[in-house]
Amino acid sequence: MTRHALISGASIGGPALAHQLAARGWCTTVVERAPRLRDEGQNIDVRGAGREVLRRMGLEDAALAAGTGEVGLRFVDDDGAAVAEFPAGRGDTAGGTAEMEILRGELSRLLHERTRDTTEYRFGEQIRELRDDTDHGGRVTARLASGEEIEADLVVVAEGTRSRTRDLVFGDVEITELGSRSPT
Ligand SMILES: Cc1cc2nc3c(=O)[nH]c(=O)nc-3n(C[C@H](O)[C@H](O)[C@H](O)COP(=O)(O)OP(=O)(O)OC[C@H]3O[C@@H](n4cnc5c(N)ncnc54)[C@H](O)[C@@H]3O)c2cc1C
């Protein structure tokens, strides 16, 4: 029987996992609370493991092409002459500015486009309740906000740090603020 994975969150982690599971024969459903793919966010520098994931998904060239095109950082004097320069890195890890700089929304779009034919996406939907019968040879049943029930062999919560579905499973999880703030 084909195994079914229900993944919550259609940002970066959710679609990337759906791709890998679908490639291994899983049936995959992604539910996303937002009514459509979220395209907000600033640029992300993709390095190391993240870059390797894109490579394995066959998306490395597409991500480079969709990148911001940043060429690095240059300090200039009053006349505009360069006094110091940090060019973008070349390759997977080098440079203050990475070779692969891409807007978060563009990265999410690429991942969604790569997976939408092999994964069922449900936007404007979320998990309200989970019942785990796997200890008794059964599956996990998820009741969605729409009232529909979905059975799955695996439920993955990829909802970011403030996940409500995680609270359904583990109760309140304390989040440690690291002090990073947007300038006001
Ligand atoms: C809109 C947005 C903008 C961001 N901008 C930046 C940025 O500029 N720079 C940067 O470095 N990082 C940014 N991030 C964070 C970065 O994308 C993530 O930290 C990282 O990619 C982790 O991805 P993730 O897929 O695990 O979770 P996230 O990217 O946090 O995505 C979680 C997804 O789950 C969905 N979701 C949340 N709760 C539920 C629920 N109950 N049911 C169903 N779906 C749910 C969210 O709508 C979202 O689509 C942003 C994230 C988001 C969502």
Layout of secondary structure:
Layout: E1 4-8, H1 13-23, E2 27-32, E3 43-45, H2 48-56, H3 60-65, E4 72-76, E5 82-87, E6 101-103, H4 104-115, E7 119-123, E8 127-132, E9 140-144, E10 149-152, E11 154-157, H5 164-170
Parallel strand pairs: 1-2, 1-11, 2-7
Antiparallel strand pairs: 3-6, 4-5, 8-9, 9-10
Helix pairs in contact: 1-4
Bound molecules: flavin-adenine dinucleotide (FAD).
Residues 8-14, 31-34, 38, 40-42, 44, 104, 126, 158-160, 163-165 line the site of flavin-adenine dinucleotide.
Structure description:
Residues 5-169 form the FAD-binding domain. It holds the Pfam family FAD_binding_3. InterPro entries: FAD-bd (IPR002938), FAD/NAD-bd_sf (IPR036188), FAD_aromatic-hydroxylase (IPR051704). This is FAD-binding domain-containing protein. The chain is α/β, with parallel strands linked by helices. The protein has a single domain (4-170), classed as FAD/NAD(P)-binding domain, CATH 3.50.50. 24% of the residues lie in helices and 28% in strands. It has 5 helices and 11 strands. The chain has helices spanning 13-23, 48-56, 60-65, 104-115, 164-170; strands spanning 4-8, 27-32, 43-45, 72-76, 82-87, 101-103, 119-123, 127-132, 140-144, 149-152, 154-157. Helix 1 (13-23) runs parallel beside helix 4 (104-115). The chain starts with a strand and ends in a 14-residue tail after the last helix. Residues 8-14, 31-34, 38, 40-42, 44, 104, 126, 158-160, 163-165 line the site of flavin-adenine dinucleotide.
